[in-house]
Hints:
By secondary structure, this protein is mostly beta strands. The protein has one helix spanning 2-19; strands at residues 33-38, 41-52, 58-71, 74-84, 90-96, 105-107, 110-115, 122-127, 140-144. It is globular, with a radius of gyration of 15 Å.
Amino acid sequence: MLLRYSAIILLLFSSALCSAQNIKFSAENIGKEIFQKTQNGDTRSTYLGKITDKDSKILFYVVKEFSRIKAANVYHGNSWLIFYGPEKKFSAKYHFDLPNELPFKLHTNKLYFYDIDEKPVKVLNTLIDKQLPKLIFNSSLITFTQ
């Protein structure tokens, strides 16, 4: 049983990294969703934009992603916020429980989130700079490159 869950986790992790190959990190693709069918499910990736320093040097490209994998008769979903370095190689990945917890936009190095627990719904934001935070709101399972 543990081997099966390990395989599912590995598949989800590799699927998140592979799907970014289909994303063009350009201004005209910001906000466009890319749908990719996989052998056991599907992945929806959206390029949110880039994070730059004060000299407009690119620090990170940011992608949000929702993946589903079929296990028996049900699908299991994972929501990820993924950061790629200026050379477009994986830097960090944050796991969120639900797809509606992912940010809906990136503007001037700020990620914008809906706080659906508040009535009326509030918009929260967090500034990202040279160093990525250990947590982004209620994210978990953070993976960083060495």
